[in-house]
Every structure is written in C-alpha cells, then in structure tokens.
Write a structure and sequence with these properties.
mainly alpha, 79% helix, 0% strand
C-alpha cells in the first residue's frame, strides 16, 4: 500500500516537478548568459598583434580547439532555439499559409495535386516562421562567439545592432508582402488574357517565401555597409564610383533570388536592391563622418 501511494504521489507531482526543473534549468542558463554578457561588456581584450596570435596557434594547436568547442556550443544553442521557435510556429502555420495566399484569394485558391504537397508547404512555412522568430537569438549567439576578440566599444555597437538587424529583416519581408506581391502576382497570373491559372501550393509558397526571405536578407545590406564603413573597410566615395558594377552584381543576385526566369520578377527584386545600395552609400558617408568627429 505504501509503495502504491508513493507511486501515485510521484505520478501526481511529476508535472509540477517537470515544470520546476525546466524553470530551474532556464534560470541557470539565463544567469550564465547574463554573467557572460557582463564580463564581455566590462573587460577589454588584450591587444595582441595578428602575427603573434598566428604564431601561438601554430606552436600550440590545442588552443584552437577551445574556440572550436565554444563555436560548437554556440551553434548547438542556436539550433536549439531554432527548433523551439519552429515548434511554436507549428501552432499557427495554417493561419500563416492562409495569410501568404491572401493575394490570390486565400488558401482555398490553392490546388494541390500531390499527396505530399501540403506537408512540404506546411514544413516550409513553419521553418521560415521559426527562423524569423529565432533570428535575434541566432545573432546573439554569433555575438557571444566573436565578442571576446573585439574591443569593448565594438562589442557594445555590435550588440545594439542585433535588434536593428532584426527590424531590417522583418521590414524587408513586410515590404515584399505588402508592396511587391500585390503588384507582381496579379500581373503574372493574368499575363496571358483568357488563360485559367491554377496555383499549386508548393510552387506558390516556394515563390512567395523565397522572395520574402531573400529580400529580408538584402535589407540587411545598408546595416552591413554602415558597420564596414565604421571600421574603415569601405568608403562612400568608392561605393559611389562603382555604382555601375554594383547594378550588374545586383542584377545577377536578382536572377538568383527570383524563382522564375521572367524579367518582371527580376526587375521587382532589382528595384529595392538598387535603392538599398544608394541608401548604403549615404550611411557609409555618415559612418565615416561620425568616426572622424571624435578624432
């Protein structure tokens, strides 16, 4: 009887024990991350010449394994965060697919001809949504890895850039959904007057998510140029002089990003990228000016 009551008590209290253990584990993780951030924001790294660093690495290759192990931990935590946000995204993926299909009349306007097609579409949308939610944390794990090797001011600047980069990425996806797709999809669907077009979920969602993802990534370009100009790797004058070459490179990128081969979609992708390039020139000029003022 005693064993039965003890087993029953363990069964009844198991959910509470599981919640308490999870909260304690999360608390320890947050405390460890907080200590790491506090140390990184207060300590200044040793200013060692690159040649000496390379020589020490050659003489003692085992020291390099510490950085490899640290990178492994950061990647593992980033993947764990991505898995968690993707699992959360599964709860509202159906609503997201319906939202993505709004420009063509909703999810009921999509016609699946393959039994596995809905599953692939569901997984693709859930993964993209999970990546968007996990992007700040993934960037934070990358910051934790590179922060020990940069100066204290660069640590503060790069840490503050994480939420800005997230907003740029979301802004690029929002621009694609609210500006590009409403103009592109009706034109493509009605390109040949009188032809009935049945949209497959796989091809439609692949087209929409690919354009949204890569445009969101391209919206990070001004921030990257600003950071590179701030540390002196690029100059606004050089960017302005090479605008013709930049347009050619943007055209190649647009051809890669665009899932179709028609020039209309390619032009829709090229337009924002070219505008972002000229915005980057202005930000590079401001970055160099801000760096020169304290001097």
């Amino acid at each position: 009887m005693r064993k039965f009551l003890l087993t029953l008590w363990r069964i009844l209290t198991f959910p509470f024990w599981l919640v308490w253990s999870t909260l304690r584990l999360v608390g320890r993780f947050i405390g460890r991350i907080s200590n790491d951030i506090r140390e990184l924001l207060t300590e200044e790294p040793e200013d060692e010449p690159l040649a000496d660093t390379i020589q020490k690495t050659v003489e003692n290759p085992g020291g390099l394994m510490e950085h490899v192990d640290a990178l492994r931990r950061n990647i593992f935590r980033a993947l764990a965060g991505l898995a968690l946000t993707t699992a959360i995204s599964f709860l509202y993926t159906r609503q997201l697919i319906d939202l993505l299909a709004k420009p063509v009349g909703g999810i009921q306007a999509l016609v699946a001809i393959d039994p596995t097609e809905p599953v692939g579409v569901y997984m693709r949308v859930a993964l993209l949504s999970g990546f968007t939610l996990a992007l700040p944390y993934i960037a934070f794990e990358l910051w934790l890895f590179i922060a020990p090797g940069i100066s204290r001011s660069a640590r503060l600047f790069s840490l503050a850039a994480i939420p800005v980069a997230t907003l740029f990425f979301i802004g690029g996806m929002a621009f694609t959904y609210f500006v590009m797709l409403p103009a592109a999809i009706p034109f493509l669907v009605n390109f040949i007057f009188g032809m009935t077009v049945e949209l497959r979920p796989a091809s439609y969602v692949r087209f929409v998510t690919s354009v949204m993802f890569w445009i969101g990534i391209s919206f990070e370009f001004p921030l990257i140029i600003y950071v590179l100009a701030r540390i002196g790797l690029v100059r606004a004058r050089v960017l302005a002089q090479q605008w013709r070459l930049a347009v050619v490179i943007i055209a190649l990128l647009a051809a890669i990003i665009t899932p179709t081969i028609d020039p209309v979609n390619m032009a829709l992708v090229m337009g924002p990228l070219i505008i972002l390039y000229f915005i980057s020139i202005g930000l590079a000029y401001l970055a160099r000016r801000e760096k020169a003022e304290p001097a």
